[in-house]
Design brief:
about 375 residues; alpha+beta; 9-stranded antiparallel beta sheet; 3-stranded antiparallel beta sheet; globular; disordered N terminus
Length: about 375
């Protein structure tokens, strides 16, 4: 079958996958301590994080950290530079590319259409995207797109495995979800996501649009603590396709608002939230340890650990982030960096350490 324009648009988004693996090169920076407001010192976790982020080996930290409990800030810090070349210090209010943390937004938009009766999670994607070129469109469901159990590598290629039997992370499935959302809602993805942010009072969150004055700080590639600017690549239709998977800009305060409202029933109905945070498939992710962790809709769900949490990570285009929520104690951790390590083993070095410090603190135990 001939590939349609929609299929081509989804295919072009795969260029972004290859691009994310090429985000490595170097220039120069030295971390600088920011203001530490509201640091809680009940069990020393704040001091432990303070010491951690001042380390320069195996790499330096350059980013912001915001920890809240019951909606109130317990730790906040900006450390390093928003603009390395001009030595402009980071602020907690600065806007970052959140990359794959964008997937939670897409999952929520889809679930809201499910609540309206416009999408059936267990219908084949052919119902919503009739022009898809492969026969698997009659087998793969929307549910399997959301939790990466579809086995899709590209809209023009056969499946990697039988749908529902394994996990395969990638861009294409969330590009398809963005297209499905647009078809059933009658809105563009950009319009809907930006409207949702306004509804939630997330005034510094938006979809990054090419050729617009986007208020976002610079992203860098870190090689041995030497930083080189990573410019945003112009991708045209491919960038629009990539947006539901990784094209959103936000800041620490807005992401804390998102987590507070998402996990406390202010964005989705209870049944929809249960669908989002339930899982039928698991996978290992370096940011969340060496064991397999459940994957719901745009969230990793760790319910086998001593301290349960729900979270996601993101990296690419000179940025890295992690966002973790501990439901039993209503504790939220947001770590955003405007650097992408050249050494893939160090992408989430500080994000992992900070998560572990919090998990072993009195905040959540």
């Amino acid at each position: 079958m001939k590939t349609t324009d929609a299929g081509k648009r989804m295919t072009s988004s795969l260029m972004m996958l290859a691009l994310s693996f090429l985000l490595t090169i170097p220039t120069c920076v030295h971390a600088q301590l920011g203001n530490n407001a509201h640091a809680e010192k009940t069990d020393g976790y704040a001091a432990e994080i303070d010491r951690l982020i001042q380390a320069t080996s195996p790499r330096s930290f350059n980013g912001v950290i915001l920890i809240t409990k019951n909606g109130k800030t317990t730790y906040s810090k900006a450390f390093g530079y928003a603009d390395v070349e001009n030595k402009i210090p980071l602020r907690l209010e600065d806007n970052f590319r959140i990359m794959s943390n964008s997937k939670q937004v897409t999952a929520v938009l889809i679930l809201r259409e499910v609540e309206k009766g416009n999408i059936d999670l267990h219908r084949p994607v052919r119902r919503y995207l009739p022009d898809l070129p492969q026969a698997w469109a009659d087998e793969v469901t929307v549910h399997q797109l959301l939790n990466f159990s579809a086995g899709i590598t590209d809209v023009d290629k056969p499946l990697r495995f039988k749908p529902g039997t394994d996990f395969l992370y990638g861009v294409t499935t969330y590009t398809m979800l963005g297209t499905i959302f647009e078809k059933v809602s009658g809105k563009t993805y950009i319009e809907a996501a930006n409207d949702l942010f306004k509804e939630l009072g997330m005034h510094n969150s938006f979809c990054y649009e090419e050729d617009k004055n986007n208020n976002v700080i610079k992203g860098y590639v870190n090689s041995n603590n030497v930083f080189e600017l990573k410019a945003h690549p112009v991708q045209g239709a491919g960038w629009l396709g990539f947006m539901p998977a990784g094209g959103i800009v936000s800041n620490a305060k807005d992401l804390a608002v998102w987590d507070d409202k998402l996990h406390n029933g202010k964005i989705l109905k209870p049944a929809s939230y249960r669908l989002m945070t339930d899982y039928s498939i698991s996978s290992q992710h370096v940011a969340f340890g060496t064991e397999d962790v459940g994957y719901g809709y745009g969230v990793y769900v760790s319910d086998k650990t001593a301290v349960q949490y729900i979270g996601h990570s993101g990296k690419g285009l000179g940025f890295a982030s992690i966002k973790v929520y501990f439901p039993e104690k209503d504790v939220d951790v947001v770590v955003l960096e405007n650097q992408f390590s050249e050494d893939s083993a160090l992408h989430y070095y500080f994000e992992i350490k900070i998560r572990e410090i919090v998990m072993n603190s009195n905040l959540v135990r």
